[in-house]
Amino acid sequence: MRLPPARGPITAELFAHLAGPAGELDPPLVTPPCTRALEDGDLQLALFACYELHYRGFDDVDDRWEWQPSLLGFRRELERCLEAALAHAVPRPAPVPPHQVRRALKELVADDEQRGPGLSAYLQREADLARFREFVAHRSIYHLKEADPHTWGIPRLHGGPKAALVEIQSDEYGGGRAERIHAELFRTTMTGLGLDASYGAYLGRVPGVTLAVSNVMSLFGLHRRLRGALAGHLAALEMTSSLPNRRYATALRRLGGDADTARFYDEHVQADAVHEQVAAHDLCTGLALQEPALTRDILWGAACALAVERLWAGYVLERWQRGLSSLEDDPVAASPA
Question: In terms of domain of life, where is this protein from (predicted)?
């Protein structure tokens, strides 16, 4: 993956630095006010690029930028904007006793479900192939690195919660079989749909809110102080996964997809039904019992996952209802011949 085109003054300045040798940012990069940070494509792309240095990086960026102190200071300002936006959009849930965390998580999910099935139902019943391909292009930003942000939590936990997280992540990584890694299953889905399945292929085309979905995970994963929010975030993802993935699989078959193309979604229908129990009880309740002070963080992390997902889905549906592409330009390009 190479750096995508800049989207504004933040990424223009940042990418100009990243294209050169690692060194001090002189003068230091300055971030704008944090207005609508969750939807700001320039800010979210800049933060995504900073985070990506901790994952697979960019072919045209010196790996030594990863721990360059002045870049980390700049990233902290971007994170401050993101955390402020999350705090504004997602009020902290009321505290509960640690043994009631699982019930509180279920209540958050039930409240989210009352808002309607939304995007997954639309894809199941109405979307044409072009819309489904757009959906997959959005999801590629996370699914081609699926599980990696939550894996940052493993060394920050101990005992039962650590074992629970390892159990979930082991499934995500195919139980040691490369062909069953969920990111690889998703790559097969993309290929079956005629999409470019290379890592980060659509980074330059997705809107800011799509990047925010991934950036929130990285924010929680890369900061030990947010380990409770990371656990809650993962629980919310697992608890809201099975039914939507069943709908996605149904949609894909309705649109002519074969078994290999649908396997990613079929896998999640089964696996996540188990993962949600492990995440809610063994991981989150176990962590709350170990560290009661993290209880509100766990619930807030779950609420953030649900809220940002709603914001993203609302954006996509609103664009489609207006007859527009949900990507930054028109039809999704097929993979190179």
Answer: Bacteria
